[in-house]
Amino acid sequence: MNGNDRSIVGLVMLAHGMVHTFELSIPIFVSIWLAEFDVLRVAGMEVAVTQATLGLLVTAGYALFGLGALPGGIVVDRVGSRRLIAACLFGMSGAFLLLGTAPNLLVVALALLLWGTAASVYHPAGLTLISKGVSDRGTGFAYHGVAGNLGIGLGPLLTTILLIVFDWTTVALVLAVPAVVAGLYALRAEFDETAAVDGVERGSTSSRPTADDEVATDGGGAKAGSGVDSLSELATASKQLFVGAFAVVFVIVMANGLYYRGVLTFLPNLLSGLPGFEPIALSTLVPGLDGGRTLNPERYFYAGLLLVGVAGQYVGGKLTDRMPPEYGIAAVFAVLAVLALAFLPVAAMGIGPLLVLGALFGVTLFTAQPLYQAAVADYTPAGRRGLSYGYTYLGTFGVGALGGALAGAILTYADAGVLFATLAGLAVVASTCAFALVRRGRRDATEA
């Protein structure tokens, strides 16, 4: 990577890691809020604080994290990535500063909504910056994904360690500080946001024409001013995206989001009922400790699965430099379908084989992300890149959020076998769509 690449990648790695650190620290606070707050007072009414109440509040913040991606994508095409990433970092910091001074649960709720709104703009802004500014794009996506997974895995761990020493409000304030520093860096870092595009997108490994070739009137140039100024322009730009191959990519990212939330939302609960995952009393490990305190192995398995995803992000990013991303997508989701069907049979064999499968599962699950991110770049014009990534993360985090509800309903009215079969079906849909893109590329190459 050249100097411009390194400056951009350094910023997006920092910002991406912070987004997911904040995201995964919130569930750690939930059990504390349950004990600290008795009622939620809104407009003169009092609502008892229960797991359902807090679940709705947290879900509202996470929903905005996904739903705000589309308007974030529209804005990034107008104002550029740098300012939007800085606004995201300052906004998340402000949200946790508010959280750290919250006198009641209503203010906690407002802080969560502010965090979701601020965080939602990051992915379209960060991914647009990589796709348009980094010449070694696949490596940029890889490092970006690695940083995100470090935030996913280490964020909850950092929060838990801080809570040993400080109360939750102080921890929230401590977490807010690095985001301010990162925001200041975003404003001062020097780089060219469009260094990797110049008339025609560079860095694509595909043999077919890119979207910039096909839609020359739609902002494909490196210096293309773009974005939408009205609802009618938004409708026109969206139509231009969805009448082409991007519609197929969008189905892939929705299937990925549903699979991701579907498998991860209830995985700790599923694991807790398996042999080898029984709670371990701390007194058996450290004599003299209260025997009522336990270690829960399923939580460490879960965290480990997320952490090994770092390797998957790196592998996926490197693959985009060596092959058209649709080939990688087809293969990865075929493997995910097999892993979903194998999960319960392997679990019945004991914890050893399950650990091996879990490691493979974590790597494969996160290998998909850089591949579909690169596919979005290949199948959209540079001038609509922010809008494209906005739709991508609306599909991944917005539509994908329904995966948790889907999994919960299946586990309530059927069983885990049906759940994993359904997940396998979603993976097959994504793999089939990728094969459709492969056939399209071959047809275009033949016609050319």
Automatic annotation (TrEMBL):
Gene3D superfamilies found in the cross-reference section: MFS general substrate transporter like domains
Keyword Transport carried by entry: no
Entry GO terms, CC: plasma membrane
Chief site of localization: membrane
Bilayer topology term: Multi-pass membrane protein
GO MF: transmembrane transporter activity
Keywords: Cell membrane, Membrane, Transmembrane, Transmembrane helix
Membrane-spanning segments: 12-34, 54-76, 83-100, 106-129, 141-164, 170-187, 241-260, 300-317, 329-348, 354-372, 393-413, 419-438
Entry's localization field: Cell membrane
Residues covered by region (Disordered): 199-223
Signal peptide: none
Domain Major facilitator superfamily (MFS) profile: 1-442
PROSITE patterns listed in its UniProt record: MFS
Domain of life, source organism: Archaea
Matching PANTHER family: CHLORAMPHENICOL EFFLUX PUMP RV0191, PURINE EFFLUX PUMP PBUE
Protein name: MFS transporter
Species: Haloplanus aerogenes
